[in-house]
Amino acid sequence: PPPPNFFFQAEYGILDAHESRGLGYVYKRQIGDSVQKNVFLARSSDGGASFDRKMKINEGSSLGRVTAVMYPDQSLLIIWIRRDSAGGAKIVGRYVSPENVLGDVAELIDVSPTRSSGFPKLVLSKSDTILAWTDQSQSTPQVKTARVRVESLR
Question: Could you list the pLDDT tens digit for every one of the 154 residues in the chain?
Fold first, then answer.
């Protein structure tokens, strides 16, 4: 059988992990004058010929900028940026089990809510999951990295 796939639904259609280059997508819904951004996930076990029902991943106000990694056991770590109640933003993450059981949303890093804070990235190495993001807390922006302890998000 083909390897499992996952995708993020975009406002312009469905793109798989290869077509999205791993960046992920956010489904944006317009209700009256307000715009709600949500992060959804759907899986495929047949190479993208069909997908399971989509599930909402985020809680609260999402700014989008989604990234994800899939582990060998088919579990996922999905990361996005969420606006906080003080007007700032946080990089948050959520573990999704192979059976699509959602872990809690975990706040990982404070970031700027502006577009110039960029897109967080996840990299899976042999033993670690590495998160990279743009830190704008100093006068010169810097790319920073941190190890994500996925075990603590399950």
Answer: 445 555 444 333 344 444 443 333 334 454 555 566 788 888 877 776 777 888 889 888 788 888 888 888 888 899 999 988 888 899 999 999 999 999 999 999 999 888 878 889 998 888 889 999 998 878 888 899 999 988 888 8
Closest CA to 74 of 88, 89, 95, 57: 95
Q: Six-digit token pair at 77?
A: 């770590």
- Specify which residues 9 forms β-bridges with: 14
In the chain, count H helices and then E strands: 0, 13
From the list 41, 64, 40, the residue with the least C-alpha distance to 120 is: 64
- Residue pair 80/89 in contact (Cβ under 8 Å)? The answer is no
Question: What secondary structure letter does DSSP report for 106?
Answer: E
Q: How many residues does the chain have?
A: 154
Give dist(CA 93, CA 85) in Å, integer. 18
